[in-house]
Amino acid sequence: MKKVELLAPAGDFEKLKIAIAYGADAVYAGVSHFSLRCHSGKEFNYENFAEAVKYAHERGVRVYATVNSFPFENQLPLVEEHILKLKEIGVDAMIVSSLGVLMKAREIAPEIEIHLSTQANALNSWDYKAYRDLGVKRIIAARESTLKDLQRIKEKVPDVEIETFVHGAMCFAYSGRCLLSAVQFGRNPNKGSCANDCRYPYVLYAENPETGMMFKLEEYPEDGTYIMNAKDLCLIEHIPEILKSGAVDSIKIEGRTKAPYYVGVVTKAYREAIDAFYEGREFDKEYFMNEILTTKNRGLTDAYLVKRPYERHDTQNLETSLTHGEWQVSGIVNEDEETFMCKYKTFPGDVVEILAPKNAKISPVKNEIGEIWQENGKWILKFNKIETKNGKVLEAVHSGNLNPIKLPCKLPYLTFLRKKVEFSPNGV
């Protein structure tokens, strides 16, 4: 049985390394030009993107470059130059939406796979056949597609790979075809500049055109005004069903603008879920969901892959657009594996949980810096002393402190240290 690919987001070089460390088979990323996440892509320029592609390839991980915006006429020379540079860098595929960009990419770089973006809204076997005939290797299914639809399409067009989103932010508009940000802020979502206007609270009014009177539409308490705020997609409980279907070649996690911790935790959870299925091990839904819930989210929904949109009444969060998570990242281990960078605040006596990359090996230890032990299957670290790499002892360390802090022993690079925290209702 061919294993389904796990595809994770890489908004910058650090997140690319984290996605790989925590189990991704492939990552998708982009230099800011012509990507639908142009703001996140600003962390990549051509030079360090080339380094990132090399880093991934050395570890057997594929890189898909996003070129999925819809360019205007005056941008075409820049798009052509961009495709040439991606060809030189040696990406494994280009993700495109525009039919014209698709054809130009095939002309300039025929050796590079073309993956059709979800923005192209391919919904049926006619679409898949047409794009296949134009040289598309893989189609990223429209968010509105159901698993049954994908099975039927796969039967009719077996030579086209199908990729589907399984986790991350959901767009209020039809497969992202939205102009709300363009109207309110002059930021075109289809150029990669979405301002997330659907996440804002809105006040509704009704006007009587005969009298000119304007009435505010009052709401029931706690109903909220977040009328366009979609919950986040989470299909981890449906992984066995998706993999058994045989319709999907790649499952995709959304989130190039999300935090490094999100990339690590979500990638690891889906990696473990996929491996559990293929290895015939117990599929522990509770464990996987508990891991997902340590990340910030807008509430979770399984959206439309297993049910039709009109059958769903739980896909929106009308109360708040504030994200929340049950855990706070205290630190992330540096490349020397002997120190970490503080991301929150840490005091002597603090106890944190160790979240390590895939296949990491950890051993118990106890010394003046701290103690590491295993408890209920999890690795725990207690700090006895906060000491910088150069030997300075601190009463505490807070985020923003750029001094590497000593660990009681070596831990794998990109390991997260996390602690459970209480958040107040207003998200603080």
Automatic annotation (TrEMBL):
Pfam families assigned: Peptidase_U32
Source taxon at top rank: Bacteria
UniProt keywords, alphabetically: Hydrolase, Protease
Biological-process GO terms, alphabetical: proteolysis
InterPro entries: Peptidase_U32, RNA/ubiquinone_mod_enzymes
Keyword Protease attached: yes
Keyword Hydrolase appears in the UniProt entry: yes
GO MF term set: peptidase activity
Similarity-based family: Belongs to the peptidase U32 family.
Record's protein name: Peptidase, U32 family
Annotated organism of origin: Nautilia profundicola (strain ATCC BAA-1463 / DSM 18972 / AmH)
